[in-house]
Automatic annotation (TrEMBL):
This is ATPase AAA-type core domain-containing protein. InterPro entries: ATPase_AAA_core (IPR003959), P-loop_NTPase (IPR027417). Residues 51-367 form the ATPase AAA-type core domain. GO terms for molecular function: ATP binding; ATP hydrolysis activity. The lineage of its organism: Bacteria, Bacillati, Bacillota, Clostridia, Eubacteriales.
Amino acid sequence: MILEFKTKNYKSFVDEAVFSMTAAPKQKGLDYSLLVKKTKGKSVKGLCSSVIYGPNASGKTNIIGAMDTFRAIVLRGHIRNSEDQSSPNQASSSLELIPNNMEKCSEPVLFSIDFIENDLLIHYEVNLDLGCFLDSEYTRKVLREELHVNNEKVFVRDDKLSFGDFKNINKFLADNLYRNEDSIIEISKNSLNDEELFLMNGFKLIISQSFVKLITNWFTNKFMVIYRADSLQLIKRFVDPQKQTVYVETTTNNAAKLFGINSNALGYVISENEADAKLCSIFKNMKDQKNAIVAAEIFESYGTIRFVNIFPLVIRAILTGGTLVVDEFDASIHPMALMSIINVFHNDEINVNNAQLIFNTHNPIFLNSNIFRRDEIKFVERDDGNNNSVLYSLSDFGTTGEKGVRKHEDYMKNYFVSQYGAIKDIDFTPIFEELISREREV
């Protein structure tokens, strides 16, 4: 369960942006949106969902891109560029795309995350010197790196490396650690590399491989960040593929039928020469009653394909207690289908593993006090003067004063009269008036 994500100097977010999934104080109602976890005897109230609003090019996708980039850096363990360029988020593999393009000199890039896994509150933060925008030849450096567990320092790495108390991760440590503590600390200091994360390298090899595995498993399997979901493809792989092997996932297929698929079934088909499965429509040929297989993009709507690609990730989040973050989740998907998915995350009897859903949207239907709490509704606004993005929550307005937001107000109406900001008045009429005027002159 994620509690907080921070970033600074990531593309349009020049100043520090804090994305909180912790319940704000003095928020009443919609208690089903709360996830209560205990760590070290203390109760933490997290949010099970969050929706992000803002005009086009405001930075909504950038905040999700920052999460995806941080995830990629942690999992590969260094700040060198990745050879894998397959991700639609190019900044996750080519780090020279991260710094703000308006900055004339290098400013550090910050990533920070707080999450709960295995009843441990984990805080991990990195501060990186990546150079200026598009400077791929810059000598990069990890300026600072820190790990805290249950609010206790485990290590801090800056100009030097210092350790705190390992008591909160004792069960993950080797028996001989304390017997050889001095030498292990010295070896750890000598293992530092400017371009490598100490957590994923020296700490993993010298201090605790099992604890790092806990973290990497969370980033790999439970922190599911889908950047630009329009290009999302869910790939099914088989250990021993055979020609025309067909795999139908029952739960997803049943959900697709409720969604309104046109074929008898949707399945993943793998051919003899291809390792990657392809989504196909499967139906009976009316002439010979045999199964006929057609590529899904030929027979199904774009919205259906997106739904079937995404729904297995919803299932995984609910079953594992994962955090699903999706850019433009509702694109080409009917609001009622998305509303049902939101209700699943809000259902205490179904969401027993503390799963979370985070997505951005332009659809105002979710600006409703009966669907989301004020602390679950986020806004991103971009300053027209300096092009910097700012992230804030509806709960930041408070409940009193001229701009106060009360529980049962009409959030949608207030948003469209620009009471909360993060909206732009767009009028294309002058462009066409000028165009028509030029045509008449000719």
